[in-house]
Amino acid sequence: MDLVECVPNVSEGRRQDVVDALAAAIESARGVRLLDRSSDATHNRSVFTLAGSADAVTHSVLSLFDVAIGAIDLRTHAGAHPRLGAVDVVPFIPISGVTMADCVDLARTTAAKVAARFDLPVFLYEEAASTSARRNLADIRRGEFEGLAAKMASPEWTPDFGPSHPHPSAGATVIGARAPLVAFNINLATDRVATAKSIAAAVRQSSGGLPFVKAIGLALDERGLVQVSMNLTNVEQTSIARVFDAVRQEAERRGTTIVESEIVGLVPAAALPPAPERSLQLVGFTEDQVLERRLARETR
Fold it and tell me: Fewer CB within a 10 Å sphere, N or C end of the chain?
């Protein structure tokens, strides 16, 4: 079976009725399975994982945009996680019967349809990027929604598709193709966001830390904690356990400790160490978050 995975990140994690409407939009496309959904009120963000054929996934993504643009206004949106769009990022990932080149083509054709249908600027990233300066999502998102108009005034930030100015309420979106990744967050026993940012800089690849690790530091104000929020882009080369140990060591150097960790969305079975709840201080994890288990259950 030809199967593409897609993991849209949407800038809404507080209004349950909107999150439910987004999930319903995803599932409205025939042949698509919604494998996972995760919302975080502090981040004010939801992450959906879906799978299906290329055509079915495209229809599902367009339905998602339709609901999100009607329901989300970034002019009044606030959350801990960086964002530049109502639908912030849409990656396509090859699962079976498709190649990365197929997903690059899918990203470009979907981006063109999104731009035309919603009059929305679209930037391509990772394997679909049009230039090396746009491979990294963080570089595209830098400045966020509030700085987007000024950023797009520069010719070097003309979008790949759509108008050369932000959508007034939905900003812009980033669409691309990439390998599977694991979203892994670690919460620390301190309220000093500078500590989380310092640890993030120490462990992320771009600052000379661990290969295949992207990391930022965030404040979880309502809990009085801070978080090192990470994307692990190759867990075969840099394991979750190695990242956990690195953050623990960096935290201890700064006089604090790990409270807990979490995996957002799905994770390949091979990426998990034995007894992850204990070894990673993992909270809220269920077997349904194992990618292979969900695929087997939802696509049979």
Answer: C
